[in-house]
Protein: DNA ligase
Organism: Algoriphagus taiwanensis
Amino acid sequence: MTHAEAAHRIAQLTKEINHHNHLYYQESRIEISDFEFDQLLEELVRLETQFPDLLKSDSPSQRVGGTITKEFQTVEHEYRMLSLGNTYTVEELSAFDERVIKGLGHPNYEYFCEMKFDGVAISLVYENGQLARAVTRGDGTKGDDVTANVKTIRNIPLSIKAANVPVKFEVRGEIFLPIKEFEKINAEREQKGEALLANPRNAASGTLKMQDSGVVAKRRLNCYFYQLLGENIGVSKHDEAIHLIESWGFNVSPTYKKAKDIDQVLDYIEEWREKRFSLPLDTDGVVLKINDYDQREELGFTAKNPRWAIAYKYKAESAETELLSITYQVGRTGAITPVANLAPVQLAGTTVKRASLHNANEILRLGIHERDFVFVEKGGEIIPKITGVNTSRRKAGAPPIHYIEHCPECGTELIRKEGEAKHYCPNSQTCPPQVLGKIEHFVSKRAMDIDSMGTERIRALIDQGFIRSYADIYDLEQKQSELLGLEMSQDQYEREATGLLYISLEKALFALTEGISFKQIQDFLAETAHLTLREQLRGFQGQIRAWKKKVPSNVGMIDYLLQNLDQHADLMKVEDYVPVAVVLEIFLGRRVSFEQILEASKKHGTVHMILLELDLDLPSEIQERIKKLKANTFQEGVISNMMEGIFKSKEQPFEKVLFALGIRNIGENTAALLAKHFGSIEKLQEASDEQLLEINGVGETLVTSIREFFAQQENLDHISRLKANGLKFEIEQREEKVLGNALAGKRILASGKLQNFKRDEIVDFVQAHGGQYISSVSKNLDFIIEGEEMGPSKKEKAQKLGIPLISEEEFLKMVEG
Ligand code: IVH
C-alpha cells in the first residue's frame, strides 16, 4: 500500500469507527457486531503502525488501551472538587431556597436542575484543544491521574475541533457503567464462576483504577459532563456552559431543565421520581444549581459546599410484605443463591415479587423466620433487597429459616469453601444445571459451534436422560429414532411424592377429544374451576353437545375417563391433574396391562419416554391421539439439523476443543495459546508446572485449574470418548514452510512492536528458519529481538540474565545473510 492509499484508508476507517461510536453512545444503536468493530479498529492500528507519520493524536485507535499503570500519579486539582450539601425533605430544600434569597437580597434567579448521577467524579483538563489529564476527585484537593484509562472511553473527546476553544479549560462529570453493561459483565462473570460486581458504581470505580487500560477499553464506560471551569471561558451562565461543552462534543445528559423558583424545582423532582428508573444509569437524586455565575460568586461557599447548589436525595423506597418462601437456585458453577418469594408489593413503580438474599450469612444477619413480614428496598442495586424484618408481626412459633444442606437439584450435600460466603453443590459432573452450563459452553459459537443445540433442547435432552455430559452429544447419532417425538418441555407434567407422573387435565381432555381446540378446553376449565372434577367432566360432556362437536366418540371418551378415574380413585392426588397412566390406559388398555403402564409412568417424566419403554406397535390413529398429550416435540428437521451440527463440529480445531472442555480459567485466548504451545492434549497434561509457568499469561491459578481438571477420572473418560468420536485433540500440522536454517538451534523471543511482523508472523518466521520461538524471558534464550516500546521490566530482566538484545534490522540481516 502506498502512503497516499494508506492515508485515504485511515481517513475512511476513522470516519467509520467514529460513526459507530456515535451510534452506540448517543443513539444506543448498533449497526455492526463487536467483532466487526474490532476488525476495523485492528486494521486502523495496523496501518498506523506501518505509517507512523499518519497517526493522529485523536485517532480512535488511541482508545484501545494497552498501557499498564503500576501506580497512579497523584495530581493537584487547579480548582478544588467540592461536594454538595444533601437534603432529604421539602422543608430542608425550602430552607436552602430561603438562604439563597437572603444571600442575594432578592428572588430573581433561576435554578438549573439535573439528575444526580451515581458514578465516579472525574475532572478533565484540556490544553490547546487536547485532552491533557484526567484526574479522579480523590480528597477534593488532589486525585489520581487516570488519563490512560479515561482515553479508552470512546465518547470522551481526545481533541476539540471547534472554533474559539479556550487555550486551557477543565470539564467535570460523572463516569458510569451503564446498567445494561453492568448486567452483561455480571452474567459473564457468573458463567465463569467469578465473584459478581456489587453495583454499577463500584464497577465503574474499580474499572477506572485498573492497571491495564486494554481491559478498561473492553468495558463500555460512559460519562455525563456537568461543569465547565477556566479563565475567560466567555459564558456567564451555567446553561450556556452546558450548551457550549455539548457543542464541543462532550456528552451531556438530556435530563436537565431550568426552574424559576423552588416550586418548579419540586415539580422537576416529582417528574423524575419514577422516570429516573428508565435512565441508562443509577441516579440517587436531583442537583439544583443557581444558573447565573455572578450570583454564584455573590453566594460563595461554606467550608465544604457551595452555597449556590444543593442535592436533593430521593429516599430509597421501602415497602413491607410477607415472605412466602425461599427458593434456592443452583447456578451453572454450582453456587447456591437463595431467593425470597414475596407477596406482591408495589415499589418504585414496579411490582416486586422476589428479592435476592445473597447467601446464608445474609439470612442469619437479617434473622428471618418463616412467613415473616420483611422490608424491601430498591436502592443502587437492580434487584430489590430485604433490609429488615418487622418482628412485631412475627407469627407465633414461626421457626427461623433453616438453610438447606443438600442441593435442590441433585440432592448432593452442599459445601462451603473457606472464606467464601456462598454454598456450593460439589457435584459438577451430574448436577443438572451444572451439566447444562457445561454443555451450553461446549456447543457455544466460540467453542464447538453447534448452533442447532439451544438451551431448551439441551435441557430436554438432559432431563430425559439422553445426555449427562458433553461427551454424550456424540452418541446421539445412534439414538436418532428415540429422539423423534421427544418432548421439549415438561410444563404440563407434575410428579407426586410417590414418583407417579400426572398430566394437566386440559392436555388429557385435548387428547381424548377431536375437533375441539386447546383454547376452548382451557376456557371451559377456567370457567368451571369451582366445580369438582366429576362435575366438570359431566359439564364438559354437555358443552360438547352444545358446541355440536358431538362426534360420537367425544362424549364416550369422557365417559371412559370418568369410569377409569373411579376405578383408580386412590391415585387422584393432584388438583387439576390426572395420572398419566389412567389416560394412557384408555389408549393402550388392550395392548398392555395397567400395572405396566403404571410402572413406566413412575420411572419416566414424559409420555414419550413411557412409550419408548413400553415399546408397542401402535396404529397411526392412536399415535396421532397420543401426540396431543405431548408438549412441543423434536421433529425430523430439528433432529437432522442437530446431527449435521454435531457432525460438523468434529472439524473444529484443537484450540476450540480445548476451550470447549470448560477448564476453569481457560478462556478462548488461553486455549489458543496452550494449544499452540503444546500441540496436543497429552503434552498439555504431561507438562510440568515450570513448563506451564514459562508461558506468558499462565499463572499459578491456571496451573491449579489444569491440574484439577486432569485429576478427575470423569474428565479423562470424556476426553477419550470425544477422541474416539473423532474430535481433534492435537493441532493440525500446518504445512511447515521451510525457508532456511539460518536460525537452527537458536532460541528466540521478540518483544515490543515490530515493523515487519505481526505477532503470529514472527513466530512462524523464526520456525520456518529453523529456530525455536520462546514466549517468555528466560535464561535459555539466545537473544531477544527488541521492537519498539519493549516493556521496561522485560528489558531489565533480559539484561540481568545477560541475554543479548538485537534490533529487528540486525535480526533480518542475520537471516538473510
Ligand atoms: S455538580 C460543587 N452535578 O455529586 C459541586 N455533581 O456531592 C458541583 N454528582 O462530586 C458538582 N451528579 O461527583 C454535580 N449533576 C451533577 C452531579 C454531581 C453527580 C456528584 C459529583 C460530585 C458530587 C457532589
The two ends are 27 Å apart (CA to CA). The first strand starts at residue 74 and ends at 76. The mean pLDDT is 90.
